[in-house]
Backbone:
């Protein structure tokens, strides 16, 4: 089995190279050996190892030159300097310039294995942190805004599916961003520089759809005064996105199936077959299996298209993404309209967060545009929200939810108040500020998990990024 970790050894002495190979022969590493600095640089331009073991004296250049090249190019690898007894001071200087460790010749087996083990553990922890960042801290992604767990799952599927030619079937309610998803897949794919052609199968009359996809020859039907290229020819080499695929006529579905299977088609009214290289993406806001059961969508076409499914979550299931998307729209439209809006009031945030958004992101976009066009100010108040948003919650519900959603503002109000009657004089000893109780609970969970924040987050049923953010805020306040 191929090793997970790779070490680059840059050493011109063959006996020493053989010795180091013997030392590391039982370790779970792949050892790549280079005798010259130039050979090492050629390798590093193509591959980034986890560890570089670097001799200072090479036949064609100094080890310092390779260290400086690695640091200049930002390669994320540990650099271990190998030096003779008389050059320890030089090694220390190189550590100040970016080296991570040094070994003094003659290098013992125990010392080499212990050093390698320590730096591989460091690499493993770095990879774990990067994986957690990738999973929990991608706030934006190829046109999407949001860091909620449902969207992180969508991002991961796109990352995995984009490099292949497999057909992706995108499902989701109207307004959830199915075309944004398709464009993201295209931009992440090897076809990114080629055309992305989108057709909405529900917006084009059935009798014109075949011509839209395959094109037509002159005189093919009334009004066909000249030959026309269809979407298939336009997308050659790139991606063809068929939105609302379940709206397509059954007879055309049969022709589409053959086209997907063979890559060949005929223009409407033509007799010549043409061939193209296309990656197919499709989407629907319906349940495709129900459409198959109802006889409106061909079962063989469904299974041909349904290779990699992506389910886009409705906006109401995306938590705080709602506020992030709304704020982005608010700032964008305010700049376009010459308005001053930059934020929402706590009460308006509560309404936005708890409204069910049947029209999803598209509806939210229209609501924010309405607010910006009809009003002005620094902060969007609850009175500026258009119907039906200003009718969804009672005043009492808004007040209770605002307190839960925005404790910092409440704490600030209480601390700044000059009305001593608002604070009872006989506060029981077991009543403490909510923020103190939260901090204590988080710290106890982390201690219980021996400092493992990921495990603590699982116990507390919150996102690890939430714990990291709160810890960082506490540490900043204490600094």
Residues:
């Amino acid at each position: 089995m191929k090793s997970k970790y790779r070490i680059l050894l840059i050493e011109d002495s063959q006996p020493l190279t053989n010795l180091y190979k013997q030392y590391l022969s039982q370790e779970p590493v792949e050892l790549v050996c280079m005798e010259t600095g130039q050979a090492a640089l050629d390798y590093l331009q193509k591959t980034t190892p986890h560890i570089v073991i670097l001799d200072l004296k090479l036949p064609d250049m100094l080890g310092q030159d390779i260290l400086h090249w690695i640091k200049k190019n930002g390669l994320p690898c540990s650099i271990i300097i190998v030096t003779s007894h008389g050059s320890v001071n030089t090694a220390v200087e190189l550590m100040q310039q970016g080296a991570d460790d040094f070994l003094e010749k003659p290098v013992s087996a125990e010392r080499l294995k212990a050093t390698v083990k320590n730096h591989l553990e460091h690499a493993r922890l770095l990879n774990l942190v990067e994986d957690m960042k990738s999973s929990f801290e991608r706030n934006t992604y190829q046109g999407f805004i949001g860091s909620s767990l449902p969207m992180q799952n969508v991002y991961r599927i796109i990352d995995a599916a984009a490099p292949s030619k497999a057909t992706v079937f995108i499902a989701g309610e109207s307004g959830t961003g199915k075309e944004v998803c398709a464009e993201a897949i295209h931009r992440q794919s090897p076809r990114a520089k080629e055309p992305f052609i989108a057709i909405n199968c529900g917006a084009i009359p059935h009798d014109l759809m075949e011509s839209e996809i395959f094109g037509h020859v002159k005189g093919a039907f009334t009004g066909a005064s000249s030959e026309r290229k269809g979407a298939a020819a336009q997308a050659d080499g790139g991606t063809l996105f068929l939105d609302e695929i379940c709206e397509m006529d059954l007879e055309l579905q049969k022709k589409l199936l053959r086209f997907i299977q063979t890559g060949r088609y005929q223009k409407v009214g033509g007799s010549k077959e043409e061939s193209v290289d296309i990656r197919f993406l499709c989407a629907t806001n319906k349940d495709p299996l129900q459409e198959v059961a109802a006889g409106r969508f061909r079962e063989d076409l469904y299974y041909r298209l349904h290779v990699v499914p992506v389910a886009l979550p409705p906006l109401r299931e995306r938590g705080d993404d709602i506020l992030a998307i709304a704020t982005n729209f608010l700032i964008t439209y305010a700049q376009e309209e010459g308005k001053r809006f930059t934020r929402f009031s706590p009460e308006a945030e509560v309404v936005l967060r708890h409204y069910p958004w049947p029209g999803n992101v598209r509806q939210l976009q229209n609501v924010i545009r309405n607010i910006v066009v009809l009003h002005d100010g620094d902060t969007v108040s609850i009175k500026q929200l258009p119907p039906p948003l200003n009718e969804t919650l009672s005043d009492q519900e808004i007040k209770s939810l605002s307190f839960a959603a925005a404790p910092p503002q409440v704490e600030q109000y209480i601390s700044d108040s000059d009305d001593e009657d608002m604070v009872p004089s006989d506060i029981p000893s077991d009543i403490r500020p909510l923020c103190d109780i939260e901090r204590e609970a988080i710290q106890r969970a982390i201690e219980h998990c021996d400092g493992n924040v990921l495990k603590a987050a699982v116990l507390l049923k919150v996102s690890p990024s939430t714990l990291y953010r709160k810890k960082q805020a506490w540490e900043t306040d204490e600094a």
